[in-house]
Amino acid sequence: xxxxxxxxLYALVALIDESNMDVRILHERWERSNRLSLSFMLQHVPxxxxxxxxxxxxxxxxxxxxxxxxxxxYTGKRNIWEYITAMHDIVGKLxxxxxxxxxxxxxxxxxxxxxxxxxxxxxxxxxxxxEWSMNxxxxxxVHMKKR
Length: 147
Description:
The protein is an all-alpha fold. The protein is built from seven helices and no strands. The radius of gyration is 19 Å and the shape is elongated. The protein starts with a helix and ends with a helix.
């Protein structure tokens, strides 16, 4: 059992669609080690010091989520709905950590990460003054994928 793997490996890159099974397993082991080590420290560290450890882990979580968010791109290997939902879930986690990302920014950012096949949707979004909701984005992208 590698309980110290999070100390030996500083940080892992965010998982992407193309990550192979070895990278995924290493990522899961690193996250488990990190959670267990943090749990151990929180049980054995005095309460005065514990506040600083907890706030530091929030910063680490935010950093990991932002890195995952900015490194995700739709490659066409999975369903467009799953990709957009995964991006929305990451933003939801960031919002829970008091990092506010507006839905209008999210829609715009997701459109920018889509491949050229979705250029018609990008032009449509940029041409009209309407702000799309997440549901409208999903509907238009799924419709475009069927073409």
